[in-house]
Design goal:
Helix content is 48%, strand content 14%. With 293 residues, the chain is an alpha/beta fold. The chain has 2 domains: 209 residues, Spore Coat Polysaccharide Biosynthesis Protein SpsA, Chain A; 78 residues, no CATH class. α10 packs across α12 and α11 packs across α12. The longest helix is centred in the last third of the chain and has 20 residues. The N and C termini lie far apart (49 Å).
Length: 293
């Protein structure tokens, strides 16, 4: 019935895989859980070895790092069932009906189904992880009603079900290097082909918060990807790119960059603080987008 596909990179997936295997057994469905380790450190490979002993689990350590798109495509190609459930390795299952909810979607013949994401309500104790938590809580953990209004823009690849035959016709774009926007490109292809994304209330918790310096470095990589993908015509404009284009059209992009450069130290200090501003984060990304133009 269902192949659960989990790409792993430097994360302990034992609790996640054990919970999924238990929920699938309780649902009395045919399943497999395929985990590909994408070049993790020896420490995490050792930690994850015990999942090999679980019924229905296939754990493979790859000899190289394939990257976010390529490894998902590779997982899908070895899956044996007609429906694929992609989950990020840093997910936590909080709901007893998680698998049953996706089984309902399968029985309803849904082509693509996104379950959502959430973060803990309480702010992390470590100040260095607050920016990631706040951004995720406000910008990624969207309520179902809001996701449904923009089903393609609200799609993320952390927790979604798709028919295997359909996925193999589309695949993730392997030309995208590094972090950022492979899920938006995937959703854009679905939209272009008039394939509906059904949104349901079936979220996983995102539990791996990264430090602000790493979060900002990822934002830089993602912004570079966005600019390249728009130039290639693979995605339409986002809020960030449209804002940048508006500033350029109004001939005030350089004025904004001068303002940013004068205030950069204050902006970065705020983003590393215990109460980071999303407006300052937007300004940081906007300056990245405009800087090399």
């Amino acid at each position: 019935m269902i192949s659960i596909l989990i790409p792993i990179y430097n994360f302990d997936v034992t609790a996640l895989v054990e919970k999924l295997a238990m929920l699938c057994s309780k649902a009395k469905i045919r399943f497999e859980i395929i985990c590909f380790d994408d070049g993790s450190s020896p420490k995490f490979k050792t930690i994850n070895q015990p999942i090999l002993n679980l019924v229905g689990v296939n754990y493979v350590e790859l000899s190289q790092n394939y990257g976010r798109s390529r490894i998902r495509n590779k997982l899908a190609k070895v899956a044996q069932y007609d429906h694929l459930l992609f989950l990020d390795c840093d997910s936590k299952i909080k709901y007893a009906g998680f698998i049953k909810n996706y089984v309902k979607a399968i029985k309803a013949d849904v082509e693509v189904c996104y379950g959502g994401r959430f973060y803990k309500k309480s702010k992390p104790r470590a100040k260095s992880k607050v920016l990631h938590w706040k951004y995720g809580s406000l910008r990624e953990a969207l309520p179902l009603k809001k996701r449904k209004k923009k089903p393609y823009l609200s799609f993320l690849s952390n927790n979604f079900l798709i028919q295997r035959e359909l996925f193999l016709q589309i695949l993730f774009d392997e030309s995208i290097q590094g972090y950022g926007y492979e899920d938006l490109v995937f959703a854009r292809v679905l939209e272009y082909n008039e394939i509906e994304i059904t949104h349901i209330q079936n979220p996983t918790e995102h539990i791996d918060l990264i430090k602000t310096e790493d979060f900002l470095a990822k934002a830089e990589t993602a912004t570079d990807n966005l600019k390249n993908l728009i130039k290639q015509g693979k995605i339409r404009g986002t809020k960030l790119s449209r804002t940048a284009e508006l500033l350029q059209k109004c001939l005030i992009a350089n004025l904004f960059l001068r303002w940013y450069n004068r205030n950069e130290s204050r902006i970065l200090e705020n983003l590393h603080s215990a109460d980071p501003s999303m407006r300052y984060l937007d300004a940081f990304k906007l300056h990245l987008y405009l800087a090399d133009d």
